[in-house]
Amino acid sequence: MKKTCFLPILIMITCACNKTTKKLIAGRWNISQMYTSESLEPSLKKLTTEEENNTVFYSNRFIFHKDGTFDINLLQAYLHGNWEYNDREQSLKLTADSSGQTFECHVDSLSLFAMIITPEKKFFQKIGELSDTALLNNVDINTNISHTLVLSFNRETYNNKEKDPYDIANNQWRMQPLQPLNDRQIHARVTNHLNFLRLIFKDALDKEHDAVLYNWFNTPFKLANNGVALKFYEEIKPNWDKNFYDSTEAKEGYELLRKCFSRKINFMQTDNKFLKKVDMLDQMINNMNRN
């Protein structure tokens, strides 16, 4: 019996030793928990229900690609850029494409299935700038102290990056530009957001998921099982503005979204809620492009 139990453990240890640290880091990681480093107390504040408490980080990801690029989605903030690991310092260096900022993360622990990292304080300052203020009310990311993130390995795979909801190609809409956009570029950014929404439902359809969570991104739409509505601009302005060079461009983008409802949307008669959403987004995109 002892030999039977020991064999899987030996295989796991051998596999871990044969892999370099960089190869172990490369992959998709869920955020299991966030702690304040000084006290190791959870940074998650008490929420109204246990279900909310379990889903704050559910769809958040740290994705380190083998080609040295990364996609990070944390508390509705999205960062893309390049990563490199310094084995001597046990340091993970992240360089964000959108701003050129660099962030250092200390790798406290790493195995085949788990990684614990402590990013420098300015990383969370950036996350706070890009995150939804309402969501941050549930999470303590005091930028005067350090935080430690507990990551668990995620086994989901995509053969084609275009099908990956977290890939930069599908998240251009929320990468704030560093220079003004023209009308064509604003239209492309809004279209990218609509295609992103379509993709998350198509992904759920293809993978036969039970549900789609909206807590890892911000959208001006109110999505319900029986339809869709566009929120009032004043309601979404603080977060929508972050996706554009300035508030003037953001308002132009919002007006394009209004055109999604320029023609009646006919909801597909099906019990498959994801298929219905995909068809709904197709009609909305067509409506916007007809005008």
From TrEMBL:
Superkingdom of origin organism: Bacteria
UniProt name for this protein: Uncharacterized protein
